[in-house]
Amino acid sequence: MSSAASRDGLLTGALRRVGAVAVFFVAVLAQCVPALARPRLIVHQVYNAGARSLIIIMLCGLFVGMVLGLQGFDLLQRFGSEDALGVAAALGLLKELGPVVTALLFAGRAGTALTSEIGLMRATDQLTAMQMMAVDPMQRIVAPRFIGGVIAMPLLVAIFNLVGLFGAQLVGVQMMDVDAGAFWSQMQGAVQLNDVQEGFIKSVVFGTACSLIAVHEGYHTEPTAAGVGLATTRTVVTSSVLTLLLDYILTAAFL
Amino acid sequence: MRPNRALEIGTGLFVLLGFAALFFLTTQLPGSGVQVGGASGYAVTARFDNVGDLKTGSPVTLAGVRIGRVTGISFDPADFKAVVTLDIEKRYDKIPDDSDASIQTAGLLGGKYVGIGPGGSETYLHAGSTIEFTQSAIVLETLVNKFFANFASRGSAGAPEAKEEKQP
């Protein structure tokens, strides 16, 4: 595929890649329903993509929340409104930082693992062998990994947000002496269910995008050692850019 | 596929944790779910004409020092007044019972809080007592309306030409 793509110009090549991803997306979606017949495969992938990313997600969430607490405090203090720190941290985490940072980490942690795993299967002809045995690799390999990623992502975002809030609370209330009651009550007064929903929808969209890119790059890897490396790199780059692009579009749509 | 006990337990834990986090975010953040620091002192009530956007959990201060928090805001249908329950810490038990309570705003963007101004009485507030003297929240819109109403009436009185124009 990549040798064919090199014949195209820059614009045609980009267009072709977008088209290939879109076609692949439809093909994966078509295989998602039959893949549900093997829930154990999906559970395995939820574990790989979600449970194994848990530590890094929680660690990053804590630090993002703490930084938010510090920066928010510094900014709000200038207006004498430290009490609004809870609102600032909660909205920042729920609507932007939670979904986006989790998606970037997810692309780096779970996306690369998916790509290199499937890519190595491609390079060692395992996918072809499956087809020889009349097992559809799209249904057996790709779809469960895709579904696993889509399920894991919103859960990871929720955990990230929770830990982030705890971090912001830690800095704001424990270190900077913002009143705990004001911190929580203002947050509860200002955060709407819409804001939580917006973050949730974003996380589902980012999860779909990142998982799709990861399995697509893996499935269409050039079957060489260098090809697997290249595909892994492209997963991270494409997922990150796509996440930030979609984030802008979604934010504009919600406002 | 061979069942793998550890893997399934790990996945189960992860999913459970994720849903617990999601549950917390959707139910506890919007609205008054979490109560920070349960009632620890004695409860005093104060009746206000208007509490503005005072919320449960807002601080109660005396001379700028936090001495407790608001634990309940309700409404008395008999006289249309807001009944605010203040939970004041036990160690501050020498607050005169003729003190006044006013609803104030912290900073430009800050939330409302209840400020207590100490009185001179020899008897002190205790659990169940009511603060008699209260001052409601200042609602900015009302102030602005009053200002403009004043401004308009003074403006028309001071400009007879405008009055004449209006008459036909």
Largest sheet report of chain A: none
Shape field of chain B: flat
User: Helices and strands of chain B: which structural class?
Assistant: alpha/beta
| Number of β-strand runs of chain A | 0
Number of helices of chain A: 10
Alpha carbon gap, first and last residue of chain A? 40 Å
Give the SSE string of chain B. HEEEEEEEEHH
Helix content of chain A: over 70%
Strand order of the largest sheet of chain B: 7-1-4-3-2-6-5-8
| Unreliable runs of chain A | 1-5
Chain-averaged pLDDT of chain A = 90
Describe this structure in words.
The complex is a heterodimer of chains A (255) and B (168). Chain A is mainly alpha-helical and 255 residues long. Chain A has one domain (41-254). Chain A is built from ten helices and no strands. Chain A has helices at residues 2-5, 10-35, 39-49, 54-77, 85-123, 126-132, 137-175, 180-190, 193-219, 225-254. In chain A, helix 2 crosses helix 7 and helix 5 (85-123) runs antiparallel to helix 10. Chain A starts with a helix and ends with a helix. In chain A, 52% of the residues are buried. Residues 1-5 of chain A have low confidence and may be disordered. With 168 residues, chain B is an alpha/beta fold. Chain B folds into two domains: 1-30; 42-143, no CATH class. Chain B is 29% helix and 29% strand. Chain B has three helices and eight strands, in the order H-E-E-E-E-E-E-E-E-H-H. Chain B has helices at residues 5-27, 140-158, 160-166; strands at 42-48, 59-62, 65-76, 81-88, 100-105, 112-117, 130-131, 133-135. The longest helix of chain B has 23 residues, at 5-27. The N and C termini of chain B lie far apart (93 Å).
